[in-house]
């Protein structure tokens, strides 16, 4: 970018050419496999993440290698986030790109959430941007909640969690919500499968935004999370935003956006 601006200053290129070159510089092309949006964080508030399931393993390796090419720990670059990465694939990645560990990069893998964050430096202790509550109906929903938690913490926010407090034992829910409100959460993410009733109950009790995450937990007509999704979309409680099935990542980014809009 400095070279482009210098050429413009020296009159070698026009302002239109300068603008086009800067835009092009914001995208890294990885051997025609991936176009990585390096500037997404400054533009949208959260960096681009790599969605693993639909990618060939060799492409994942190539993306990681190219992203960290010519980079060193503590450089001013974003951590690399890889979502929905199975434990089997993660273990294989460690053997193939584990040399990055030797160079000083940190591999932070959450097995339950199936998220890998390759960090360029240790997290600095700082005051959180805000607090976000995460609630699950059952233990089967925790993997999606943990996905949201990793993303929230990666953004510099604090995640306060309460798991397995669904409508099947609704007495468990009220003290947990009260505790989160006392701690000053600004947004609640509520994950539920089966009939997907929990977000409606929560939204009827609080005056802060509720983000509903349908999970694929269920059987029979509820299999795959479609019933939970439709129930949340049809909720009679106002103030609910609904993301796609098992989209803990999307729920977290939306919650972070709300927090940052208040800062």
Question: Could you characterize what this model shows?
Answer:
With 263 residues, this protein is an alpha/beta fold. It folds into 3 domains: 1-30, no CATH class; 34-119, 2-Layer Sandwich (Translation Initiation Factor IF3), CATH 3.30.110; 131-262, Rossmann fold, CATH 3.40.50.1970. It has 11 helices and 11 strands. It has helices at residues 2-9, 15-25, 40-44, 57-67, 87-97, 99-102, 142-154, 173-183, 198-203, 226-233, 248-262, and strands at residues 27-30, 34-37, 49-51, 80-83, 106-110, 115-119, 131-136, 158-162, 187-192, 210-214, 240-242. The strands form 3 sheets. The protein has a 5-stranded parallel beta sheet with strand order 8-7-9-10-11, sandwiched between helices. The protein has a 4-stranded mixed beta sheet with strand order 3-4-6-5, with helices on both faces. The longest helix has 15 residues, at 248-262. It is globular and about 70 Å long. The mean pLDDT is 86.
At a glance:
The chain is α/β, with parallel strands linked by helices and 263 residues long. It is built from 11 helices and 11 strands.
């Amino acid at each position: 970018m400095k070279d482009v601006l210098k050429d413009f200053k020296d009159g070698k290129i026009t302002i239109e050419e300068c603008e086009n070159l800067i835009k092009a510089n914001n995208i890294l092309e990885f051997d025609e496999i991936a176009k990585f949006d390096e500037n997404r964080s400054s533009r949208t508030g959260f960096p681009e993440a790599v969605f693993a399931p639909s990618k060939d393993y060799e492409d994942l390796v190539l993306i990681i290698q190219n992203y960290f090419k010519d980079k060193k720990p503590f450089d001013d670059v974003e951590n690399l986030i890889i979502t929905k990465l199975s434990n089997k694939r993660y273990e294989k990645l460690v053997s193939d790109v584990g040399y990055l560990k030797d160079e000083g990069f940190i591999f932070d893998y959450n097995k339950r959430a199936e998220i890998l964050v390759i960090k360029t430096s240790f997290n600095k202790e700082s005051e959180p941007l805000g607090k976000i509550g995460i609630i699950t109906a059952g233990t089967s929903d925790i993997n999606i909640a943990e996905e949201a938690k990793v993303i929230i913490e990666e953004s510099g926010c604090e995640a306060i969690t309460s798991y397995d407090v669904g409508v099947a034992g609704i007495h468990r829910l009220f003290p947990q919500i009260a505790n989160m409100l006392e701690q000053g959460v600004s947004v609640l993410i509520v994950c539920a499968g089966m009939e997907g009733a929990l977000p409606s109950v929560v939204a009827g009790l609080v005056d802060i935004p509720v983000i509903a995450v349908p999970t694929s937990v269920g059987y029979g007509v509820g299999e795959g999370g479609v019933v939970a999704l439709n129930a949340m979309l049809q909720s009679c409680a106002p103030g609910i935003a609904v993301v796609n099935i098992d989209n803990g990542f999307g729920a977290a980014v939306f919650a972070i956006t709300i927090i940052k809009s208040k800062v």
